[in-house]
Amino acid sequence: MKSEILQLQKRFQLESFDFGNYLELLQKKLKVHQDKCNSFVTLLNPTLKREGVLSGVPYALKDNFSTKGILTTASSNTLKNYIPVYNATVYEKLLESGALLVGKTTMDEFGMGATGTTGHTGVVTNPFDETRQAGGSSAGSAAVVASGILPFALGSDTGDSVRKPAAYCGIVGYKPTYGLISRYGMFPFASSLDHVGVLTRTVKDAAIVVDQIKGQDPKDMTSIDSSQIHLQKRLENKENKHKKLFYLKEIMDIDRYENPSEDLKETFALFEKTLVKAKELGWSVQSESIDVTLLEALASSYMCISCAEATSNLSNLTGIIFGLRGKSNQINEMIKESRTDGFSPLIKRRLVIGSYVLQKENQEKYFKNAMRVRKLIVDRMNELFQTYDALILPCGEGRAKLLDGSKNSFSKEVAVLENHMVIGNFGGFPSITIPNGYIKGLPVGINLTGAVRDDENLLEIADSLEEKIDFQLFGGEK
Which residues are catalytic? Predict the structure, then answer.
């Protein structure tokens, strides 16, 4: 599939191109989209910068990236009036590249959620069906890219917060290797799991954007040297070598699912068709096994670890230095009022969980056991990556979930399928979602996960599969 970013660049370079008219039309489209999907906390009026690889290319930024002088709320009442005094590294890099920030996107509050429904400015709806979720937490970023208005947006991914919305919205969601992109200036949720991610409509565009924002950053001690990783160049010069993929038979055995839904059956059928396409490329696909007890512990282990880290990371939100201030004259009461009034019920529950699992008497049973599960899963994945190029699995049970919550409950087996992408965060593995067709007019995706620092190989696989699948946005039959 062609790069939309490169096509835009060619248009901007024409002497006859009227950028002012283009920007005016873009703003009108964004306002219409906002009325439909509520993707933005803040809309901006950018000016053209003609220097840089992404000169003139418009994009959106999730509202948990610090932007100097621009409202940055993390979709929380606690920060509803917060204007930062510094820039996130990724924003600085995009400024240097000439990209045009047109708005800050709505998210689940502080990135803690998978629905796009908990932001302080309201619910984000799916551009395919306004009765359904766009997914979370990078809901606004996914919805606006899926609308066809912007070629890319940035998000953050702590469990699957870039990749699951991408699946629900029929676009590409790519979370690189942990540390490939600096997180300086991205509000932390769970520091050992947080990744910067990108949402695009093609794998090639994901490669172009990440090439511009990756790199070691002295302001982020977890960032890594990626000077030998060239994603766009690799896709332009594919090696076309034999690839070896694997899937987890504990997840893909339909007989393990009691009363499988029609969505699940169709998801599995689409997945089988994609495996056929992979074999047509000359690749091999094998089933492998991970202890089902570990897989069933993924969600609870993720909750223990992420909530524990969130409890620490959000402890600075007291309303004293910045943020929503309590009205009391007593400092302890002031802090209590700020956090009581500023945080939604979801955030409060997660912080209570985090505090509970970190209590001395509970650490062994909950937090340390969760870390053991994480290590066992990561060790097994690293072992498999000695043999295989990538793990391939459906992104979930099927279509985007309904906003009213009906028919959204999961069995134990479906819960494993819905939560398996957290493996990418547990191990810092590069992971990418690409569209895999439609179910009843709504898109579904497949996910590919590879070995740490093997991003070039992973994107080559994703790009080749994308070409074989030939997904057309808004092209499904209803």
Answer: 62, 137, 161
